[in-house]
Amino acid sequence: MKLEIEIADKTLSIDWEENDSIVKATIDGNSYELTLMSPTSNVYTLLFNNNVYELSVETNPLNNTVKVADKVFTTKVVDRRQRGRKTDSATSGTQAISAPMPGRVVQVLKNVGDEVKSGEGVVVVEAMKMQNELGSPKNGHVTTIKVKAGQTVVAGEVLAIIE
Fold first, then answer.
1. Tens of pLDDT, residue by residue, the chain (163 residues)
2. 72 and 109 within one domain
3. Which end of the chain has the smaller Cβ count within 10 Å, N or C?
4. Residue 133 belongs to domain spanning
5. pTM, 2 dp
6. How far apart are the first and last CA of the chain?
7. Calculated CA dihedral for residues 106, 46, 16, 24, nearest 10 degrees
């Protein structure tokens, strides 16, 4: 699976494979193998080079907050399909909310007809043991919800439509 993550004004290109709790990741060309476990929701234990790291993740519509020991990082998953779009096109007309990666719908936060503000959460998708709240790309109304809680989705699948 490939994605880009923004951390402290730096964009990292990540490609990873997960097999049970073993993760093989390539981050900006550097390869790593680690063990990832999630003892509770939004808490992760990472084993790497004989070191143990505990991460806690707090999600919101615009970014994620990751805490490792006493350090806090703000992160954002970059949708490579959205990167080249201009601001005008991202806020006018009908806009779709798509799954950034394969996963499972955990919760649908809005109903058809609901009014939403830009960035407000519409659907929560779990991928790689992390929950991502996907927000509205613009102010508007939810015209279509195409998924239900518990449903599996593929990368790029349209989850909801905002007008």
1. 777 888 877 888 888 888 888 989 888 889 999 998 888 888 888 899 999 988 888 876 667 788 888 888 888 777 555 544 444 444 567 888 988 888 899 999 999 999 999 888 899 998 877 888 888 888 999 999 999 999 999 888 899 999 9
2. no
3. C
4. 92-162
5. 0.50
6. 30
7. -140
